[in-house]
Each structure stands twice: as C-alpha cells, then as structure tokens.
Design goal:
The structure holds two protein chains of two kinds.
Chain A: H1 6-21, H2 36-46, H3 48-65, H4 67-74, H5 82-85, H6 99-102, H7 119-155, H8 157-172, H9 175-190, H10 199-229, H11 233-240, H12 245-253, H13 258-282, H14 293-302, H15 309-336
Chain B: H1 2-29, H2 34-39, H3 45-55, H4 61-74, E1 76-78, E2 82-84, H5 99-134, H6 139-152, H7 156-170, H8 186-220, H9 223-230, H10 235-263, H11 267-272, H12 278-287, H13 291-319
Antiparallel strand pairs in B: 1-2
Helix pairs in contact in B: 1-13, 5-6, 5-8, 5-10, 6-8, 7-8, 8-10, 9-10, 10-13, 12-13
Classes of the chains: A mainly alpha, B mainly alpha.
C-alpha cells in the first residue's frame, strides 16, 4: 500500500468538483488545495452506511458517558436489589413475575432473575464499563504498537531483528489462554494472594493484558510500512539536515502512517469489546457486582432456559454495536484508502 | 522443500521452548505454593516438604524448568510417582494424574469440534463467496455480503445460548451439545456436536465469504483470466483452474490460522456448550494453579498454531509456484 499522495489526488478532485458547480457565467474558482484528511472526510460524508453506523456507534458512546445522568433521571441504579424490598417483583422461583422478564413502565428492560436488579441501568453501566476498558486497551495497544513498530522499522539491524522475533513469539501465543493465565499474575503484582482484588485493579489488569498481547500485529504492520518509507528521499533529506532519529520517526514517518493506524484501530476496538466480554464470560475478567457486558451475558447464561429476555438485552446490544462498528470501519477504510478493494 | 521444513521445524521448537519458559516464569511470578493446596488443613512442615519432594517442586525455578525439559525429552524420576518415560509432561498438581494422559483424553473432543466446524464453515464460506463473486452486484451477492457482515458481528457466547434455547429447549430439533466418543456411538457423537459446529460455522463462515468474494473479484478482472477466456477455455474451467487457484492463497492462510487457534482450545465455545475439551482443561488448570497441566495445554495450543503456520507456508508454495521456499 502506498501512502496517500495528495499532490496527485488533490487537483483531480478539485477540478472535478468545480466542473460540477460551475455555471456558464461563473469564472472557475481558484482551486484551493485540500488536505488528504479533508478529502477523506468528504468521501466519508457521501457514504450513507458509514454515516449511519457512525451515528449508532456515537449513540453507544454517548449513553456510555451519560450513564450516571440517565440513571439519575430514570431514578434507579445498577446495584440495588429491588426485589429484596419488593418481593412481589419475583415469583417463588426467583424469576420475574411479570411477562417478558418483568418488563414494565417502571423497569423498562425488566428485572434480573434471582437478585432482582434493574436490567436497564445494569446494561447502561455495563456498556459504560466495557467500552471504557476496551477503549483504554485500544489506545494503549496502538501507542505501544506504533512506537515499537516504527522504531524497529526505522532503526533496522539488531533492534529490528529482536523486535521481529518477539513479535513472532507473541503471535504464536494462544491468546485467550494467555489472557486467562496472565490475569492472576497481574493481580499478584499488586495485591497479596488472600486479599480481595479491587475493581479498579481488575480493569487495569485487563487493559494491561489486552495491550501486552495486542501490540504485536500492529507493530508488525507498521514496521513493514516504515521499511519501505525510510528509503524515501524526504527521510534522506531530514537526515541530511541533521534531524534526530526521534524527530524523523515521529515528525517525518508517523504522518505517513496515519491511514494504516486508523484502520487498525477501527478493527481493534470491536475486537477488544468482544474479548473483554469473553474474559468476563469465562470468569477471569470483571466479576459480578460490577456491571459489565460479559458479566451480564454470563449471568444470563446461568438461567437462559428460564428467562431468555435478560440475556437478549446485552447480547443484542453487543451485536448491534459490533456490527455498526465493523460497518464504520469499512467506510473509514474506503474513505482513507479509496484504491483498496474489499 | 526439505530444507525449508527442517528450518521451520527448528524455528518452531525454539518458539515452543521460549513459550514454555515464559509460562513457567509467569506461573511462579505470583507467590504461590502448590504443595499447600494438596497438604490440607493439618499441615506440618515435614508433610509440606515431603509433598514438595513428591511433586518435584523442591528446587529453584530454573532447576525445576530444567527437570521438566529433561522429562519431556528423555523422561525423569519423580520421588512421588517413580520413573516417568519420555515424553513426560509431569503429573497434575490438582489430581495427580499424568498430564499427557489427560490431554490425550481431552484431545478427541477438541479435534472433533475443530475439524467438524472447519469442514462446515470452509464449504459454506467458500461456496457463498464463489456464488457472490459470480453474481456480482446481483441480489445473491448483496444477500451473501450482508449475511456475512452480520455473521462476523456475532459472538459465540451469545449466539450459542440463543441457538440452544430455540433449537434445543423450545423446538427440540437438535440435541443438547454433549460429548460421546466416535468409537462408542457415531450417531450420538454427531448429534451432540452438530449444534456447536453450526454455531461456530455461522461465525466463521462470514470471514471466508468476504475473503473469497473479494479475492475472486480481483482475480476475475486480471488479464490472465481474460486471456484464458479469449483462447476459448470453458467458463467453469477458467473459474476453478485459473481464478480460484489465484484466489486461494490468503484463504488458505487464514484457514490455517483459524484451525490452529481452534485446536489450541476453543475455550469460549467449549465453555458455552459444556464440552470437555482442551479449552476447559486450560481454564480449570489456571483456576487450580495446576502448573504441569497449564504447561501441557499451552504447549499443545502454541504447537498447533506453529504447526499450522508451517503447513500453510508449504501449501502456499504448492498453490503458487512463484513462491520459492528457502
């Protein structure tokens, strides 16, 4: 893949546009230069699927950020077991007494079986927590991958060889297995074995573990790109003018790598959302009283034959989010790299 | 070809060696004493020391690792269990059975799950992708593309339960997923695994449909395909012998990776369908701080990934003679 070449693409696009707009009486406007980012944005705006999925993804992030506010307006919280104050909410078998998982005007998404928490606020906070963890892990992974990948590619030689081998090994690791095996180790670094693990530590450990195994693929990709770029004239020129390696990597090379970085990021975030939920589902990620997408699905799994409704909400929400994010990712890719074929 | 294989196998051994060493180190990075677990309540220091000796953990960590390695290649002597022939992966801390036997016991489940699902999703995915590429822009293409987009956004821990709810609990069309050895009862083996295969297939098929379609679309617009058509070869001949051969490479690569990952433990799948395979063994061994078992499972999982990588590279060269193995 070649880096975007604004000099070739920009004038073409501009003449195109001005030809469309110009009426016979009009003097052709002075063609203004447009940055590649601007061009990509224009392409993205024309993609209806992309804009729609961006709205859905945006909606998820908005409710994640505004969860406390929404819960306040709604008047409930995800921790209170409403059934213990009002036993009539659950039937004698500890399942919601109302139809459809106890959905009502008071409890919009119904009542959780057994404990009797409010499903709506639990889901709100679950989305908030899961997205927060996945986002933090993505940011950390991308930063690690970019720094290691570009540095290795630029320096070459022994550093590159060493980093290359580390990446090879990391990529042959069975990742889910190592997430599971690594979590207790990270806990062990911070708390004594018999102490209770605080929630913030669980979240931090998840972020660290996800990033520790995730950076390799993005680093490998960028390393390859940098290997091609570093032979180009502008790097030579920078070197001749006496720029430091750090400057060359971050000021000269990095701007040429934004496209693959953004594309990788859009692939990574939904993958991390599902991975984080998967770990919670297996019981090694976040655990019960903390609202979390995977915790909710694991809870739902324990009584899915009796009350499927409880599981449908987190499950469908996740499918919608991941689907919208995948579509958004495709559109972003098309916008940034119009030559690529899917 | 031979030199390529030798080189790659040596490389794979090195990677497995490093992975086992990292697992070993990771395990002991947390302060824990496996002897304490099997010692029970009335634990005297003498008992503890004896158990440590029996389990073979009365040495420093590097020495323990050395003994473990020795066990794998030439066998080793256990104070508690006597001599253990190579390949000796040790005895489980949790229930004192040989690790090798336990893994061999669990492996058929995981292999059946992986290969069965792989057969389904490969046929469905490639077939749908081919149809989509042939009917570019038509209804069938759009349908296959949207279905594959939806499929790739599903998660096994959600779809699995939904499928079990509707097809097993409500409609009763399929059997509750379970494991019966093929040699015991082939019908029960098949019906117990059918649902997991189908659910795994739904999720994996998507990727293959998308990839097959885009690869074929690209290949079909190449000059060599037009030339083949122009010199009068039949449509199907051109499609399968020319375009498809050119399109296969990336699909083989991804298939190898997927198969390796599945064999290394479809952990979430096995958990969802309560199948007693390698994946659940792995989760259990982490829960019980069972180092020998964890090491065995990790090596198997990493080994599967590395093995299929080599296979993929070799197959790649067979498909595309332009690639020279060196």
């Amino acid at each position: 893949m070649t880096p975007p070449t604004p000099s070739a693409a920009a004038p073409l696009e501009v003449t195109d546009e001005s030809a469309e707009k110009s009426t016979p009486s009009d003097v052709p406007k002075v063609s203004e230069g447009r940055s590649p980012g601007r061009l990509a944005w224009n392409r993205f705006k024309r993609d209806r699927t992309g804009v729609m999925s961006a709205c859905i993804v945006g909606f998820f992030f908005v409710i994640a950020v505004a969860a406390p506010l929404i819960a306040k307006l709604y008047g409930k919280d995800p921790y209170t077991t409403y059934a213990s104050e009002r036993p009539e909410l659950l039937n004698p078998f500890a399942y919601p007494s109302g139809p459809n998982g106890g959905m009502s005007s008071e409890f919009w998404f119904g009542i959780e079986p057994q404990l009797g928490r409010d499903v709506f606020t639990f889901l709100l906070y679950a989305i908030r927590n899961s997205l927060g963890i996945a986002l933090a892990a993505t940011v950390l992974t991308v930063v690690l991958g970019v720094v290691i990948g570009t540095t290795a590619g630029y320096l070459g030689g022994k550093t590159d060889y060493l980093v290359g081998r580390v990446i090879d090994i990391l990529l042959s690791f069975p990742s889910t297995l190592f997430f599971i095996a690594f979590m207790p180790v990270v806990f062990g670094l911070f708390v004594a074995p018999d102490e209770e693990i605080p929630t913030w530590l669980r979240a931090t450990a998840l972020i660290i573990v996800l990033a520790a195994f995730g950076w390799a693929s993005i680093a490998r990709l960028l390393r390859g790109q940098v290997l091609g770029l570093r032979e180009r004239e502008f790097v030579e020129a920078a070197k001749v003018t006496g720029a430091s390696p750090g400057r060359i990597v971050f000021k000269e090379l990095l701007p040429n790598l934004w496209t693959p970085i953004i594309i990788q990021t859009t692939l990574m975030l939904p993958a991390y959302v599902t991975a984080e939920a998967g770990l919670a589902f297996l019981g090694v990620g976040m655990i019960d009283p903390t609202p979390d997408w995977g915790v909710m699905i694991a809870r739902g799994a324990s009584f899915y034959t009796e009350d499927l409704t409880f599981m449908l909400f987190p499950g469908l929400a996740m499918v919608i989010f991941v689907l919208a994010f995948n579509l958004l990712g495709d559109s972003v890719r098309d916008a940034l790299d119009p030559k690529s074929k899917r | 070809m031979f030199r390529f294989l030798v080189r790659r196998v040596i490389g794979a051994m090195v990677i497995l060696l490093i992975i086992s060493a990292i697992t070993f180190w990771l395990f002991y990075a947390v302060p824990r004493d496996p002897a304490m677990m099997s010692c029970g309540k009335n634990c005297t220091p003498e008992n503890l020391a004896q158990i440590r000796k029996n389990l073979g953990i009365d040495h420093s960590i590097p020495v323990q690792y050395w003994y473990w390695l020795k066990g794998v290649f030439v066998g080793r002597d256990y104070a508690g269990y006597g001599y253990c022939d190579a390949p000796c992966f040790g005895y489980s801390f949790a229930n004192n059975v040989p690790v090798f036997d336990t893994i061999m016991d669990r492996l058929p489940t995981t292999l059946s799950l992986a290969f069965g699902a792989a057969a389904v999703f490969l046929v469905l995915g490639v077939g749908a992708g081919m149809l989509a590429a042939l009917k570019q822009g038509k209804f069938l293409d759009k349908f296959a593309s949207s279905a594959s987009l939806l499929g790739s956004s599903l998660q096994i821990y959600f779809v699995g339960y939904i499928a079990m709810y509707y097809f097993v609990a409500q409609l009763g069309w399929l059997d509750q997923p379970s494991w019966t050895p093929f040699s015991d009862d082939p019908v029960a083996w098949f019906s117990g695994l059918l649902l997991p295969w189908l659910v795994l297939a739904i999720i994996f098929t998507a990727n293959y449909t998308r990839m097959t379609r885009s690869q074929l679309v690209e290949q079909l617009s190449e000059d060599y395909v037009r030339t083949a058509r122009a010199k009068g070869l039949s449509r199907s001949n051109v499609f399968f012998r020319f375009a498809w051969r050119g399109a296969m490479g990336p699909i083989v690569t991804v298939f190898g990776i997927d198969l390796g990952t599945l064999i290394g433990g479809a952990i979430i799948t096995e958990q969802t369908f309560s199948l007693p395979g390698i994946g659940r063994l792995a989760v259990k061994s982490v829960d019980q701080s069972d180092l020998p078992m964890l090491l065995g499972v990790t090596l198997l999982a990493a080994g599967a990934i590395v093995f299929f990588n080599i296979i993929v590279d070799a197959v790649y060269a067979l498909i595309d003679p332009r690639i020279r193995l060196a």
